[in-house]
Every structure is written in C-alpha cells, then in structure tokens.
Amino acid sequence: MPRRRPSRSAPAAPRRxxxxxxWLLLAVAAxxxxxxxxxLLRSSHWAHYVYLADAWxxxxxHLARTPxxxxxxxxxxxxxxxxxxxxxxxxxLPLVPVFKRATPDVLVLALTALAGVAAFHRAAxxxxxxxxxxxxxxxxLTFALGTALHYGAPMGNVWLHAQIxxxxxxxxxxxxxxxxxxxxxxxxxxxxxxTRATTTLALPFAAWLLLRPAGDGARRPWARVALALVAPVAxxxxxxxxxxxxxxxxxxxxxxxxxxxGEAFERRVAEHGRFSLHFLPGNLWGWLAxxxxxxxxxxxxxxxxxxxxxxxxxxxxxxxxxxxxxxxxWAAASALLCFxxxxxxxxxxxxxxxxxxALDGIxxxxxxxxxxxxxxxxxxxxxxxxxxVAVGAWGLQWFRASFLH
Length: 405
What we know:
405 residues; 57% helix
C-alpha cells in the first residue's frame, strides 16, 4: 500500500487589525466633546429648525413662536418662514414636543455628522480598499476634523445644520453608489434636494460609480440606473415645489427674496443679483488664498473665511504628480460641480471659519486628493492631516468664544 503523504493545511488567512472605524469615530467624538463640552447638549441660538418642527406640530408652515433672533428668515405678511431646506426639521420632530425650545439640536447635528463621517469612511474604503489603514485614517480624520465639520457640528445653528445634514446625506449616497445600490443612492440624493440642493450635484459622480464595470466586468443597464437616481431626485424637487407653493403661492419661490439680511448684502443683490460672475474673483480669493488677520500682534481667523489650503491642506495632495485614474477625475469634477454655485454667490458665508460652503463638495474633493495621498510619502500625509486637525480645533475655539450667541 502506498504511503499517504501528510496533508498540507491551508495557509492561514492574514490577520486583520481591529476595525478602524469605531476608533476613528471615538476620536472624533472626543475631539468635539473636548472642544465644546456641555454645549453639545444645548439648543442653538439660531435654532430655526426647532421652530420649524414646532410650527408643523401646530399644523402650519409659518412659525408658531417668535424666535429670539429672526436672522435669515423670510417675512411675508407679518409671518416668519424658514427658507432653508426643511428636511433637518424632520429629524427634530420627535424631540420638540418633549423639549420644546430647549431641544438639543446641537446634539442631533453632532450625531448626524458622526453618521456622515462613518458613511464617508465606508465609501472611501469601498473605492480604495482598506489595505492602507494609515492613509485611510488620515483621510477620514481630515474629513471630520480638518474641514468646517470640526467647528460646525459642535456649534449648530441653522446654516451649519442644513449644510452638515446635506453633506451627510451626500456621503451616504456615494457609499450606496459605490456599493452598487442605485435606488438607495437615488433616495438619499432626493433628500438632499430637501436639505441643500447644491449637494445634489454629486449625482453624475454617483451615476458613474454605478455604471462602471463590476469586478466580473458586468455593467448595470444605464436606463435602470438613470431611473433609480433621477426619479427620487425629481420627487424631492416636486415635493419642495409643493412646499413653496403652499407657503408663497409659487412653486419656484423658496422665500429668499423676502429674507432678512444686512444692508451690505441687500446692496450687492440689488446691483448684481444673487448669482453673478462679479462675485467669482472675491470668492476664489477667499477659497484659495485669504490668510488670517493680524490683530495686536496675534493671528486671528478672518470671519469671511480663509483659504482651504490653510484649513484643509490635505486637499493639496490632489496636485501630487501622478497619472490620474478615472475615479480621481470623476471625484474632482464632482467637487468642482458642487462648489460652482457658491463661487458665484453674493454671500461668502459670513460668519464662518474656513469655508463652510465648501462642505457641498468636500467629500468628492477629498476622495480626489486621496489619490495623491496614496502616492505621497506617509510622513507628508500625516503632517497635513495633523495640520488640518489643529487648525480645525483653533476654529472651534474661536467660533465658540466669538460667535456662539
């Protein structure tokens, strides 16, 4: 009888480290708690969405209670309306009957932002893989703590609430698209229409993610992808049009013409309109080059916002010399498309740290920059991440001290 050769055991699977995402979320939450403390549990000064949810509970679309500060609200026939996309108020509806004006909308926003960080991380891991844990961690921490998300999530207020909620929805939509779920991506993009429509401009990028060949080379039918993305977005637009018609008698009137704003802004709109080439040079200067101010020998943030390369230097890695992949090119194009409306807008975002309007396209912009980060030296990626996180912490403390109320 021939001797049986000893069996060879299958090679052991490579050991994977502990899951990265929980530790990153813990670090982000700790940074926000250290920077804002108990203020995470408070209600914003400009808690417009709390008032809007309260109005709905009273069966009306105009405010049932007069706010302490009606900044950026529309006044029509003596009634106050919230002009920003209504969806964030939906998330507050269960809390408002219990806490009323003291509803902790800042906590709701911080939790929403944490969900957005998780979605961004999962989207990036889907697109780039999880093998390079150091660079993936740097990318995620930059998104959470090296952008306007750092100071915005723990501070709240209606403007940041709308923007961060929309950015979170966009990140979930891109994650769904990267995972091959067209209807989920479409519904999430439809909700961005009801929150901040500029983030909906990531739709072409989501479509490309869904239409690119799968691992086996198969492609999804373009007609099904188009239907899955366009139908929910169209439904969101139709719902918003009905909302406008019920408030102002015009489906295309969101109330911005009646908004309360300062004299300087009123003059700019009267001379050039709300969107104009006239505003492009000033906005580009702010986004690309504006430095901090020097006051009494100390550097202080410019409340009109500062250069993205100062506040989010990780973005500079997009220029790292390399041959760009299609993914990087589509991500960069998506970012530019999302940025474009704000660059022609009459308002530069006053008062804010960094560029809060850049949140509209910061997720695809960082995905494009990550392509360069994957080829840059690790020490440089870490250094740019640490710089962005430190500057973000500076912004949180400055905003908290100067403009909390």
